[in-house]
Each structure stands twice: as C-alpha cells, then as structure tokens.
Fold this protein.
Amino acid sequence: MAYILLGKTLRSIRDEENRTMQSTRSKFSTLQQICGHIPGHLVSKLAREHGVDGQSRTFSPWSHVVALMYAQLAHAVGPANSVGR
C-alpha cells in the first residue's frame, strides 16, 4: 500500500483530518466589521426612544446588540450547520 498520495504523506492527511476549526478569530473580525457599519449614536438613540435604556441593569444597549449579533453569527457558523439536516 502506498503511503504517499499526490505528494501528501499519510501523516499529513491525518493531521488535516484531526484539525479543529479555529473560527473564533474570524467570527470576531466579522462581528467587528458588522459593528463598524452601525452608527455609534443610533443604538442609544433607539433605546432612549423606546424606553429600554433605563430598564437594563447590567447590559448597556450597545452591549446587548453586540451580544445578540454574536449569538446569531455563532449559530450561523457553528458546527450544527456542518451536519446534514
């Protein structure tokens, strides 16, 4: 049995199969890019207009928006989507 397939050794093939996806860095930069498109004053202005800025105890309106966007991105890019449905 040949252990070299198209210039790849059996060890390099095993290494490729065992690699885990390192998507945290790309998710963060994607999230950062999306946040960059939202005007800084818009979230706090909308929170004041709808009266939710005084209701929160721990999260600022901006932190809440970022957390919700992160959850959406994590679900969209997460490992559950790699499994056939």
Observations:
- Helices lie at 10-18, 24-36, 40-50, 61-77.
- The chain has one domain: 21-82.
- Residues 1-5 have pLDDT under 50 and may be disordered.
- DSSP finds four helices and two strands in the chain.
